[in-house]
Request: fold
Amino acid sequence: MNRVLVIVVTYNGMKWLDRCLGSVAGDGRSESALTVDVFVVDNDSTDGSADYIQGHFQQAKLIRSAENLGFSKANNLGFEYALKKGYDYVYLLNQDAWLEAGALETLVAAADSHPEYAVLSPLQYQDGYKELDKLFKKDKTPPAAHWLVPTAAIRKIGLFNEELFPLYGQDDDWCNRARYHGFTVGVVPEARAVHDRAQRKEPKEKIIDRNYRIGSLVRLCDINRPLWERFLFVCLFTAVKTAKYVSFLPLKHFISICKALPTVRKVRRHAI
Reply:
């Protein structure tokens, strides 16, 4: 019987909790050949999220962090728990995301038939199912809002990189490492889910930081390509983004990226 640990990281996510946690079998019940448990790490929420989870989803294992651990470190706690307790799969589920009925079973069945996949994702829609999540592309790495991952793959690939990618970029980095180790990443179109990003606006500075700085670090850490090639690409990337955003912020970030190169080299060696 397959055992799945659903890992949810929460931070002031009260408005999504019922749909998110309610979409997974958090009571440990068995459904056909699937048993599902829920592991929640609350990143020191101030809106009562942790108390609500404890009161309304009592079968979930709740970790109350005294600080905001970020995405990578919090999920790594779930990875380590799953490995220690002998789960077959983990399912990464964002607090602002939820599964359609039967989607998890469909994903696990596909993973059982295709052990070459380190990540399988459902189709990720915006709320209302009218269109796909704006960052979800079936031919690229799917966002980690919905990831089914075999624990066997985690044992070979390792945990998320907390040092360079505490909040963003860890999903792309982990998939690059997965490909290096002979795995692939895919989507199961028969499974559907929602990632509710609607009506969110980000300041220009945050967009530049995520798309340029973190994107550059992901490219530099990609062990499928030589570092010198990746660095030349980042130099060109810097010029392109500086012109696109009409901002000198990418140049400022480029200096910090160069300072991070010793850490990048260490990370690349460790990933092999």
